[in-house]
Amino acid sequence: MLWYCLGKSIDEYDDVDGKLWQKLVSIMNLTMNEGGGGYFHGRNNLSYGVDIAKIRWMGVLQRISIGYLFASILEIWFANDYPVDSSKAFIRRYFFQALAGILIGLSYLILVYGLYVPDWFFEISSLNVESRSPVSGYGSSTQTVNCGVRGSLEPPCNVVGLIDRLLLGEKHLYQRPVYRRTKECSVNSPDYGPPPSNAPGWCLAPFDPEGILSSLMAAITCLVGLHFGHILVHVQDHLQRVIFWSVFSVFLTLAGYVLELAGVPLSKPLYTLSYMFITAGVSGLLLVVLYYIVDVKCFQKPMILFQWMGMNALILYALAACDLFSGALQGFYWYSPENNLVDITERFIQAAFNSKKWGTLVFVMLEILFWGLVAGFLHAKKVYIKL
To answer: Which residues cross the membrane (predicted)?
Structure first.
């Protein structure tokens, strides 16, 4: 949980400005070389190099950079120096940070529900053409999406996608968006699959789930984590920490569900306000549970795997979640690309469980265990890779 550590880690820097920009540049540099946007081939995609005309500018690591930049600037330049000896003093010291988060949230709502989304068109990406079955209605390589609405949160006509198309360009967005798994776009919904015969044209439209507007909302999540870190720094009593975190987390969770009942849906691709509140609140409650088990009750040994992984979190993310390691292994195969160590292992486990879903779950759990042991080995050798 990167955002929980932010408040404390920034507080410990001496040269905060220099280290802030150094870390941001390092994250962006890693981004340009990870599987989705650089010179290293991705998993199931044995091709090298990057076409600048089609490079995807945004991504998970870029979102982390934006969130880190936002929270760091607020902590370095907008936190007062008032001593914190009461709840009122705490609010006074971090008032401008909370105000910044509120203003960004309000700006998001105003843009999403107030900005007009006109009709638009796009060219079907070669990635989609190669992976889909021929479907009537997709005869042209250019598809028109009829919108002309305000306040829509549906896949083809939302403001989040509009802003990304205007500022980043259609060709620089993610070409295989998650809404290709919806009932309108996949016969195997909620999984990917061939489109039905009456699939709308927007099923093949590009959309970036880590776009500009949604990344600004994700930055508010980092700000929430920053305030959790403030409590960790200023409150020394275990019970008081648990109480403050619990109250804050319950408030965020309830606020998210109230917004959902009011018509703001839970949407990770759009990173809606309700989604941000609920995920931050539930994560906070999980932190309370883990803090009580590990730090208060000192039940630490069963959690040692997570501790190891946290010590090298970002490099493990790059190697595992970004498929750098598995992509490298897939580059070596026997006669055909499908006969590589990664795919053979996954197929073997699926066959052993006689289920693709359960086999995939076990495969992923074994991956987590593997990377936990790798992190433990690095810890034993006192190797900590940081940006």
So the answer is: 94-116, 212-235, 242-259, 271-294, 314-335, 358-378
- Number of structural domains (the chain) is 2
Please indicate, yes or no, whether the overall pTM of this predicted structure exceeds 0.70: yes
- In this predicted structure, the answer to whether residue 218 has a pLDDT above a threshold of 70 is yes
Give the single-character DSSP code of 46.
-
| Long-range CB contacts for residues 16-19, cutoff 8 Å, separation at least 24 | 16/72, 16/76, 17/76
Report the relative pairing of strands 142-145 and 116-117 from DSSP bridges: unpaired
Rounded CA-CA distance 311/317 in Å is 12
The residue written with tokens 């941001």 in the block is 24
What lies within 8 Å, CB to CB, of 64 at 6+ separation is 2, 27
The Cα 32–Cα 43 span in angstroms is 16
Of 270, 276, 271, 241, which Cα lies nearest the Cα of 256?
A: 276
At 34-90, the pLDDT tens digits run 544 444 555 555 555 667 788 888 888 888 888 888 888 888 887 777 787 788 888
pLDDT tens, position by position, 181-206: 888 888 888 777 888 888 887 888 89
The reply to whether 70 and 192 lie within a common domain is yes
- Which residue range forms the structural domain that includes residue 44? 1-234
The domain boundary, picked from 234, 267, 290, lies at 234
Residue type, position 118, single letter: P
Query: What is the spatial distance between Cα 95 and Cα 355, in angstroms, rounded to a whole number?
Result: 53
- Which residues make beta-bridge pairs with 117? 149
